[in-house]
Amino acid sequence: MAFRFNFTSEDLDPEAPGTEQLSPATHALPALFCLAHTTRSTVHFQDYNSEVIRLVTIPNLLINTAYHDQTQSQLPSSAEAELEIDTQSDLLQQDPVAHLGPLAQRCRFFAGDWAHLASNLNIPSEAYKYDLILTSETIYAHASQAKLYALIRSILKRSGMALIAAKSMYFGLDGNVLSFAQLVESRGEMTLTTLYRFGAQVQREILKLTFK
Ligand SMILES: C[S@@+](CC[C@H](N)C(=O)[O-])C[C@H]1O[C@@H](n2cnc3c(N)ncnc32)[C@H](O)[C@@H]1O
User: Fold this and answer.
1) Any idea what the CATH number is for the domain that residue 200 is in?
2) Residue 3's pLDDT band (boundaries 50, 70, 90)?
3) How many domains are contained in the chain?
4) pLDDT at position 10 over 90
5) Based on CB atoms within 10 Å of each CB, which residue in 22, 167, 177, 198 is the most buried?
6) Looking at the domain assignment, is residue 47 inside a domain?
């Protein structure tokens, strides 16, 4: 199942030249927003599992971009519309990226552990690092927080920003916003601030991570 959605945010500069964004994927809606509403930015998608990229992220990308016109007539004009995608179809069994057409030049997809991503990316210099990193629900495990931090630190431009969406705390899991904030503080290299806090029963936050 994949989702089609309508964007309303006016936050992005659609013509910002050469903007590079990295997004941990799954449904990757904020990253899709960046891609669909900009013309010159490059968006890289990452998930631990290649199946997630192939069966969830890329289908979402297709119906929101390259397949947008074809799917338009199949959906009600609702932001909550859903579209069934046949995961056994040729589209997904063969080379799904090929279906992106010209958009493929503005996207790349990576699967694997954060511990190896920086070396896989093999970024040659500061100019090739990311302007924006988007990640959500990725700081719930204390042991993984250091890997995520190290990755962001090594691939984010000095002038860039990472936006991290997370629950303030996770029941039954040992990672939370406080433990991530303590990790960032202990390294002394970057600043973590809370941009938004919302949610009544389960409090969620949007955190901003930048270099000092
Ligand atoms: C709870 S899911 C959240 C998925 C998606 N960002 C969302 O908000 O719906 C956690 C994600 O963290 C990523 N993740 C967790 N630990 C990871 C690791 N060590 N290396 C790479 N990715 C990891 C996985 O790819 C997984 O999709």
Assistant:
1) 3.40.50.150
2) very low
3) 1
4) no
5) 22
6) no
127 occurs within a structural domain? yes
What does the pLDDT look like over 88-144, one tens digit per residue?
555 556 677 777 778 888 888 899 999 999 999 999 999 999 999 999 999 999 999
Q: What is the position in ligand 1's atom list of the atom closest to the CA of 144?
A: 19
Kindly state whether residue 211 falls inside one of the protein's structural domains.
yes
User: Does residue 188 lie in a domain region?
Assistant: yes
| Alpha carbon of 73 to ligand 1 centroid (Å) | 33
The pTM score is 0.82
Exposed e or buried b per residue across 52-77, where buried means at least 16 C-beta atoms within 10 angstroms of its C-beta: bbbbbbbbbbbbbbbbeeebeeeeee
Please name the residue whose Cα sits nearest to atom 20 of ligand 1: 113
Residue 47 alpha carbon to ligand 1 centre in Å:
6
Q: Which residues line ligand 1 (CB under 6 A)?
A: 24, 26-27, 47-48, 113-114, 136-138, 144, 147
Distance of CA 149 to the CA centre of its chain: 15
